[in-house]
């Protein structure tokens, strides 16, 4: 069995990787500084680069760099970003290279004026759309799919900004939550399926209020803003001196990403109108109903398994114990010192509290099994800490298909559940039993009675057509 292969000295996080976080604020004298704080709250959505663009009503300027928000911005940089309007972005590359030129916001000048744009998502028709534009003379500055939207906007024959934006959006397909900064106003946009979240908040009271947009509401909490409502799928909001104006540019066909609730978003956020913490606890409760275990303690794999473990423990009436401690100061990849220490990579991140687990029958709760290699190491660590039995419970169904909507996923051949039965996965990870939440249980936990969630990584039923090249890329061996 070879569920995933990497250079021997590099250890990679065995999770679907986050995408991007976006933030915008209109009507505040400290717009750049509040955007900086908002990006701090959204850091978990992208750690490769960060950027802010501001407008003082006359012109748009920006600053971006590689690394975390704290690495990119200093007080001097923020002091050099004047204006009452700003947008910001944290990036993990899902399309395009890992390169400063692909960092966002993109700031461009065109015949319609200056515009800055920040994007969370992934366009599924990027390849053909790019070729068509290049054939018509377009010159691209980046390898990011986001630039397509800018080109379509700049080339639109529509003279009004809302019409030109709608025209550009009509030419792209896939996942996009966007914030667009113009000299005097800001647009917030969610694609017709609403794959990625985008929420509107209000900071202060009239007449001294500012309007805020963010991928997750945890960014509002940090700056003291109040959540107003989500931008709906197929909707755009214009923030200007009069406040927000809502326009529909396409009929809504909601297919929101279920993985935002399973893993990506912060538990202290409201996403798609629901508490992420509440959703995860419900996933855990449902999991306990579907896969009970004769056990002494419930142990979460921190951090993302914690909320589901709370739900599992409450539903099953088995005590919750934090038997694994996470080291929060470890990056995504690091160099392994040879083979001297078994499971070094995972041990660097997770250390067992042997006193809690010695002689115990443990229910180990995690949010997903991707390649299986990390789960195998964690089970081994728990057993070596003295656990008598380890019963692994996963708070979502088997992950069998890659994502094309803004999440960096392994290829299908690397997803262990795409090619192995549950029993062979159990055997591979060394668990005494293994239970995945059912698809019905997942939908029930988030109260998806209308089919408004994308479930494609569990079903391979994609809500949009996806270009063959993209599928080939994801399915390559
Ligand atoms: S394929 Fe999976 S990760 Fe991608 S949008 Fe759909 S549910 Fe989310």
Topology, element by element:
Layout: E1 10-11, E2 20-26, H1 31-41, E3 49-55, E4 60-66, H2 69-72, H3 75-79, E5 85-91, E6 106-110, E7 113-123, H4 126-135, H5 146-155, H6 161-170, E8 174-181, E9 186-190, E10 199-203, E11 210-214, H7 218-223, E12 226-230, E13 235-240, E14 243-248, E15 256-257, H8 259-264, E16 270-271, E17 274-275, H9 276-290, E18 297-300, H10 306-316, E19 324-326, E20 334-335, H11 344-349, E21 350-352, H12 354-357, E22 361-366, H13 373-384, E23 389-394, H14 416-419, H15 422-429, E24 433-436, H16 439-445, E25 453-454, H17 456-459, H18 468-475
Helix pairs in contact: 5-6, 9-10, 9-16
Iron/sulfur cluster binds at residues 195, 257-259, 403, 405, 407, 454-457.
Named CATH architecture of the largest domain:
4-Layer Sandwich
Derived structural class: alpha+beta
The number of helical elements comes to 18
Indicate the proportion of strand residues: 25-35%
Strand segment count = 25
Instruction: Give the terminus-to-terminus CA distance.
Output: 14 Å
Bound molecules: iron/sulfur cluster
Query: Within the largest sheet, what's the order of strands?
Result: 4-3-5-2-11-10-12
| Tally of distinct domains | 2
Q: Quickly name the level 1 CATH class of the largest domain.
A: Alpha Beta
Fourth-level CATH superfamily of the largest domain: Aminohydrolase, N-terminal nucleophile (Ntn) domain
**CATH fold topology of the largest domain:** Glutamine Phosphoribosylpyrophosphate, subunit 1, domain 1
Outline the biggest β-sheet.
7 strands, antiparallel
**Basic shape:** globular
